[in-house]
Amino acid sequence: MRHFGQVGRVPGDPILGLLDAYRADPNPAKLDLGVGVYKDAEGITPIPQAVKLAEQRLIATELTKSYIGGHGDPLFGEQLLRLVLGEHSPALSEGRAGCTQTPGGTGALRLAGDFIARCLPGRSLWLSDPTWPIHETLFAAARLPVRHYPYVGADNRLDVAGLLATLVEIPPGDVVLLHACCHNPTGFDLSHDDWRQVLEVVRARELLPLFDFAYQGFGDGLEEDAWAVRLFVEALPEVLITSSCSKNFGLYRERTGALIAITADASSLQDVRSQLAALARNLWSTPPSHGAAVVATILADEQLRQLWQQEVAAKRQRIAGLRNGLLEALQPYGLAERFAHIGAQRGMFSYTGLTAAQVRRLRSEDAVYLVESGRANVAGLDAERLDDLARAIARVVS
Length: 398
Ligand code: PMP
Fold this sequence. Notes:
Keywords: Aminotransferase, Pyridoxal phosphate, Transferase. The protein is an alpha/beta fold. It has 15 helices and eleven strands. 45% of the residues lie in helices and 12% in strands. The strands form three sheets. The protein has a seven-stranded mixed beta sheet with strand order 2-8-7-6-5-3-4, sandwiched between helices. The protein has a two-stranded parallel sheet with strand order 1-10. A two-stranded antiparallel sheet has the order 9-11.
């Protein structure tokens, strides 16, 4: 008997397929705006200096490779809670905030999905339309009913009215996933006033907010990007937050992240944490140590922390400079206004508004690779060649 004869083939990740096509392209002027990793001016995804220094320290001092506990490294948890919630968060001082270390933000999302499915049965999870495609598949794998609220429409504009109109119809108790900042894939973020309105509906409808916080520091600043998360945590008794250290610490492959639970009181936190540890045991048993130890070392050391903050600021400023630079380069073609949203968006990604047909032309005629939705990774732009890209865009949109 052949056991695997009936196993069908599923298509690979379309974004990774795009990367294969990019790698195979012999054009020396090719540009990869597809894959969602930060790149510096040399096109490299660098290891931050602060990470290198922390790693040297860890190699010299690490005593054991024995397992860490189910919730991970306690120092990492303590430091990350303060980074996300703020030094003076009442939820922290009241013992209502707990951190469970996970393999990346993806692990945190899966743990959150399993927790909701197991402990809050019958609840649906609401995702923005569009959202990061893994949200769709991951929560389906956790067997959660997934629904959608409008976010960015066909006109490539943020649809706050549509978002609020849908939220007021959501059954009480359902879970709403919100991108804390730097929305992936669109780059469109809510204003402070929009967030306050969302909070009011979430509170009135008794919804549970689940924040996906994957880009802290890539929008307006480490503190600024946490604004919405902290607003909700101060206003509501119960909130879930998934935090990723992949982008802001450059630790992608070290799989470093956490699920943060805010509960109504300290006793409820222990109940929730017991469930999270039990669920994690069946997923990955205990989390990997290295990345979390690096993060804990950096955040607990004043000098390393400052160095890291400077490095995050440099990344943020490079992205902002590229956004503005591309708009300036589009100016001579009379396109600066049409693409003004690129300057207003935040984080690595931009829904450019280019159609799938235009994206295909950019790829075949100019070796510029972006996702067919029109999503571009702004960090992949080459500051020296923005004029070439603007000329190519002007040609495909005319
Ligand atoms: N959420 C969003 C919106 C993301 O874009 C990403 C990374 N692409 C993640 C979560 C998870 O990242 P990781 O698992 O690599 O930490």
